[in-house]
Write a structure and sequence with these properties.
With about 140 residues, the protein is mainly alpha-helical. It contains six helices and two strands.
Length: about 140
């Protein structure tokens, strides 16, 4: 499962929704660091006639058909263009680690066993895009 944070401003639908992946994704058009998405309809091509459903369908299409010539993550885009086999292997590793069914549940259980409340752990894992160590740091600092 891939989680996407969607935020609407008071100006919606006249401004696009702000969207980013909460789950780490290895993709040329998604920042591997913070989940930012490079998709034209989330920026200059947005129209009030579009909807969240349209944005999600466009995101789904982007995941299936990367645009490495207009990347959000230049390192991933370079790998995609220069070594597609290694790109695919890395994307599979990240999917298995961060999005596979049960991966987040295992991290959730480990952090709960440390004495943290489930809702706090879920929030921390979400903010940390599934990175268990970063989530632990967030929980320990109380952020």
């Amino acid at each position: 499962m891939f989680y996407v944070d969607i935020q609407l401003t008071d100006a919606y639908p006249f401004e696009p929704p702000k969207m980013r992946f909460m789950t780490k994704v290895w993709h040329p058009n998604v920042s591997s660091a913070n989940g930012a998405i490079c998709l034209d309809i989330l920026k200059e091509q947005w129209s009030p006639a579009l909807s969240i459903k349209t944005a999600m369908l466009s995101l789904q299409a982007l995941l299936s058909s990367p645009e490495p010539s207009d990347p959000q993550d230049a390192v991933v885009a370079r790998q995609y263009m220069d070594n597609l086999e290694e790109f695919n292997a890395q994307a599979k590793r990240w999917t298995k680690e961060y999005a596979a069914a049960g991966a987040k549940d295992e991290k959730l259980e480990r952090l709960k066993e440390m004495g943290f409340a489930e809702n706090a752990v879920r929030a921390a894992l979400g903010r940390a895009a599934g990175d268990e160590q970063q989530a632990l740091e967030l929980l320990l600092t109380g952020i």
